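yo, Putative methyltransferase is done. seq:
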Amino acid sequence: MPPDVMLEGEPATQAETSTTYAAHLQMPRQEQDISRTPSQDGVSGGPTATAQEPLEADDAGSFENDSALGDTDDSSERTSLFSEIMKYREENGRRYHGYKDGSYLLPNDETEQNRLDLNHHVFTMVNKGRGGGLYRAPIDKPARVLDVGTGTGIWVMDFGDAHKESHIIGIDLSPIQPTWVTPNVEFLVDDAEDEWIGQKYDYIHIRMLAGAVKDWQGLLQKAYNHLNPGGWLECTEFEVWIKSYNDTLHNAPDIKKWQEGLQEAANKFGRTMEVAVNLEGWLKEAGFEDVVEEKTVVPSSPWAKDKEMKTIGAYQLMNMLDAASSYGQAHFTRVLGWSREEYAVLNAKVRTQLKDRSLQLYSNLYTVYGRKPKPPKTTPDAEAAE
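structure:
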């Protein structure tokens, strides 16, 4: 049972739920607020997170010219890299990115794109309130915004619609974003772990990159260096471990096996899944101030009695049923050496256990944001002393 919430639940029955490119790669493309649990370390000078209400289980019911990261005019390199980008890898019935092949183990096919958009919907429901569900940091009309690991670009497009005053850039390894976008939005194909070159930003957004980044502290330091003074960085990640609200995870041995295998594979691959719980410390190490950690319990199926949380759980279940394959298949087959058939058996068992509402499964969602300090104001006395 999570230490920060009290459990009051009853057994439940099982429910069935069923761009443009960076300059060197250019081609033409034109409810109620759910509160959070405060950090145990406290907050220094920033907004304060509030405690989340306990969840109660329900016993029945359904449920281009400006690259963010780099610039070169070498046409032969551009042609070569464009060819690399569009040459996808087909493996075990899934499609994976071609640019820097093998550096990211999740697919980019239509199934995964639909899951990413569904995942975005879950985040907007969980974060409903400040920022229209799109952000938690106390930003105010940021002129330049960067979304790292933009995926389908849905967050960028929603942010662009809500903030006409902002210019928003989304970067990703895969060119899977829409062709036609509003004038204040652009998409670039690039690797966030490469050197960052270019203008600075007022707000940088990073979401769901656990298992995709080799050097998190290096990435966050780059973000810090490319923020304007007073600018905000916001990171959102699920904790890697699925938990049980009523301490019945022992009844889901295949979920436990899947989680342990995923973490083992990610560590061997050199891109850890254990990110969420470290974000607050990493932001502080990078130099951010007013760092806030918000932790939210997100049901993994529609087991909660509260109507809004039940709805979130229903959507999250659909997300996780697809995520089991998206996150697991390449990790288990490429890294751990499983056969496609072996993983299919485990995946089927995991999906069955995810649907079991009596387990009251949930994940902790961490949102951590911090501000780059502004330079100290120069007083008349200090100027005179100089």
